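User: Just a sanity check before I run the rest of the batch. Below are the structure tokens for the first item. I only need the designed sequence back.
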């Protein structure tokens, strides 16, 4: 315990990974300077990715942004065949949808292009940004904590991109198909012509929302390692967590249809139970280690 206390004595003295002499000479503002350089490199990576996307904005717009709202998007046919393969008929079959977008502002197309580039840059540069943050934090960890955190960049990135892909390839088609096919009144006076900025905002919420939500197992594992939660704790409060999951599903999905919300709820519940398994494993390892210390 004394060694652990000594190792944790000064967070800022260990955060840079420098020698003891250099650490002793560094002030609080020196550590802030270290953080500033990590953030600066992260911003540069984000801007480079955003500029690359902006230079190819036409291709990105036609083949990525508009794809979930295109009647020829391969996911529509794939989901229909998958539902038939499961033996549930046409439950996953959605009618073809074609959305005609409009721009309601003078600078609407330009701001949309900037928004696409900036958000796309964050997604593309996410692994590097997290790596820079991790480089800043790692020197403050004990050797044991570093051992347990190996591969964290890979797993965090994997969960984020898995969630983003889920939101883009599964949730977005259901959402936009429902919203485009929903009609108000029978007169036919109202024409569905959403603004492109609204569509981009909805797509962004789906992709980023699912990407962040899928980080649940990684977050649970870290909190379990710290000792803030355990598998027993997560099991005990599953009923309350399920209510929170339903609320998160309702926030992520802009459409009120039960299909889209169910598509979000099921994987989040699955991820919660994965978190329980990970936290329980950490709990058993900690109990085993304590038993060996007392023996």
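Assistant: Here's the designed sequence for the first item:
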């Amino acid at each position: 315990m004394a060694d652990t206390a000594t190792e944790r004595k000064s967070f800022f003295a260990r955060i840079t990974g420098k020698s003891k002499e250099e650490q002793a000479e560094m002030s609080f503002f020196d550590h802030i300077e270290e953080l500033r350089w990590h953030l600066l490199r992260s911003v540069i990576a984000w801007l480079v990715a955003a500029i690359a996307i902006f230079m190819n904005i036409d291709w990105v717009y036609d083949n990525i942004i508009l794809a979930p709202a295109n009647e020829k998007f391969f996911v529509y046919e794939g989901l229909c065949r998958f539902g038939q393969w499961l033996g549930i008929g046409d439950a996953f079959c959605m009618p073809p949808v074609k959305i005609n977008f409009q721009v309601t502002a003078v600078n609407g197309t330009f701001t949309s292009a900037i928004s696409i580039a900036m958000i796309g840059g964050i997604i593309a540069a996410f692994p590097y940004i997290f790596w820079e943050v991790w480089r800043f934090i790692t020197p403050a960890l004990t050797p044991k904590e570093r051992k347990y955190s190996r591969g964290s960049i890979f797993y965090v990135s994997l969960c984020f991109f898995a969630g983003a892909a889920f939101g883009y390839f599964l949730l977005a088609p259901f959402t936009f198909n429902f919203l485009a096919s929903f009609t108000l009144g029978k007169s036919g006076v109202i024409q569905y012509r959403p603004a492109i900025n609204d569509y981009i905002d909805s797509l962004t919420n789906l992709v980023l929302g699912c990407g962040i939500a899928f980080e649940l197992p990684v977050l649970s594992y870290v909190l379990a390692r710290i000792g803030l939660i355990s598998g027993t704790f997560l099991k005990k409060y599953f009923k309350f967590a399920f209510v929170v999951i339903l609320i998160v599903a309702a926030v992520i999905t802009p459409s009120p249809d039960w299909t889209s919300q169910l598509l979000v709820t099921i994987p989040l519940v699955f991820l919660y139970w994965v978190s329980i398994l990970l936290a329980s494993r950490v709990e058993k390892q900690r109990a085993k280690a304590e038993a060996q210390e007392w023996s």
